[in-house]
Amino acid sequence: MDGFLELFLKGIPLGIANTLPGVSGGTIALILRIYERLVRGIKRINVVVLAPVGLGAVLGAFVSSKLIVNLLDSYPSLMFAFLLGLILASSKITGQEIEEFNLNSVALIGLGLVVAYFYSGEVAQVASGGQINLSRFFIGGLIGSIAMILPGISGGTILVMLGLYQGVIGAISNLELLILVLFSLGIVSGLLLFSWLLSFLLVRFRSLLMAFLTGLILGSSRSVIPATIGLAEVIMFALGGFCILLLAVNEQ
Asked: What are the residue boundaries of the structural domains of the chain, listed by start?
C-alpha cells in the first residue's frame, strides 16, 4: 500500500495515541515505520506527507475523544492496564534500534527513565481546572507538540498535567472551533521549531537517541499504573502488549 491512503491510515493511530494519557504518538510513528519520514516532512513542510497523516490523525483523535476517553472514565483500572502493556511493549521496539549497549547508551537509558518518571506522575490524580484562559490552549499545544512527536513522551499526559486535557478532548468531541484553532496553531508552531533539532539528532546520534527514548518510554509507564491489579487487568495488560508487537511484526 503506497501513497496517500497508506499515510492516511497510519495517521489514524497517531491521532488516537495522542489523546491517550501515557501513550506517545511518536512511539506509534516509530512502530509504523513512518517516524523519520514524518519528522523530515515537518522540517521541510512537505504537504504530500503532512496532509494525509494530518487528516488521519484528526480522524483518529475525533474517534478517540468519542469512545476511548469514555472507557477511561468508566473503566480506569482496566484501561490503565491496557495502556501499560502498550508502553512497555513499545520500549522493546526502540530498544532494538540501539546499536550497542555500552556505558553511554546505558547511561542515557537511565537518564531517560529518570526524566520520564519524575515528569509523569499519576494521571488519575491530576485534576483539570475550571474555566481555562484561551491563550493557555495555544501554550498547551506548543508544549504538547514536543511530546506528540518525541517517542516516550505522552502528549495526553502533558495535557493532563497542564490542566488542559478535559478541555482539549471536549473541544475535539464537540468541535469547538476557537479552542481547536488556538491549540492547532500551538502544535504547528512547536512541531516546526522542534523538528529541526530532532532531525539532526536522528542523523548524527541515532543509536544514542534511541537509548534515551527507550528510557523515556520505560519511565513514562508510571503515569498508567492501575489502581487495582486482578485477572482482568492482567489480561488487558497482555492485550496491550500484544497489539504493539502485532503492529511491529506487520510493519517489518
From this structure: 3-250
